[in-house]
Write the structure tokens for this entry.
Amino acid sequence: MKTLSVFSFLIILIPHMNLHGQTSNQAFFYSATFTPDSTNVNIKGTDYMVLWTGDNYSVFESYYGYQLDSVQTVTTSKSNNPKDVNLDALIRSVSSMKKPSYKYRIHKSWKDEQITFYQNLFFDNYVYSQPLKMNGWKIENEFKDVLGFKCQKASIAHAGRNFIAWFTEDIPLSDGPYVFNGLPGLIMEVKDIQNHYSFELVGIQNSSIEMSKLVLPKTIALSKNQFFSTKKALYKDVRKALLGKPAGSTSDESIRKVQERYDKSNNPLELVWDK
Amino acid sequence: MNKLILGCFLISGFAVAETSVSENKISESMEIITRGCDPENIVFISFNTSCGPPAVASGCTTGEIIADVLNWEEFHCGPTIAP
């Protein structure tokens, strides 16, 4: 708990990489499914993801999260002072919109050979970095068609799961959904062999998005190991997430219900992260 | 110590919030992350989440307040984010 408290105050304004001038030129949309509870794999969650790609740079995030941010950005473009804004209308607007299931934003930089992983957990935003390069892809002599593109099969063991990917050399981007990259063409589909996590391309658009703005504000910078330890501790005891928050009316009963929900969220994509 | 409160969202559901602005006191014993602005300028919002229990969102800017409202809604009512 002390560790978490210390982390709570290590608030660092946007870190690390030089993002200036990173504009996307294409957007690849993926349908994502996940299995939150390993004890009941019939329960599936979904999201609609987007991979913004530019020159030697990309961002992968929930499109629903992007839309939520866009509404806020437009509303607050003249003033971000809450006294100048019709909060009623703004809250009505955002509450009627679809919410993201994936609350991360993954920045890949080929120039820095680094992935910067932004993630919201409960009430705080976190950031950690990891090497971009993925070792261990095995390209197989098997092909199929995805959205009219000829795709080739590849496999990799990553974070404690075995994944099958389908990539196309017709789109010469060594990129893909989530942290996946390193194949000689865009990854059109990727799923683990248990089918707990999947990302499937559903659309492509030209786009011009300033990717430097697609970060989370006021992040707490951690190592990857620290981040996953923090996440595990918060999920195990959601009451810790309330440290430093105004009290509100969070009763023991409501905490118990929240904890029950998070107890059923026990099947992360990354099963192995302490290395 | 008086602090500004944007108070009391009387909501029958989260999607139909009503707001009003008023002055109020925040407990001095309350531990608050100031999030980088003058504590006098933090805005607090009391609101009901869609599944019941009221919560208090706070922030220095509209963006921070809205983010906090959404985080509280998700915390109390879900759906749980992908693990």
Chain B touches chain A through 52 residues (CB under 8 Å).
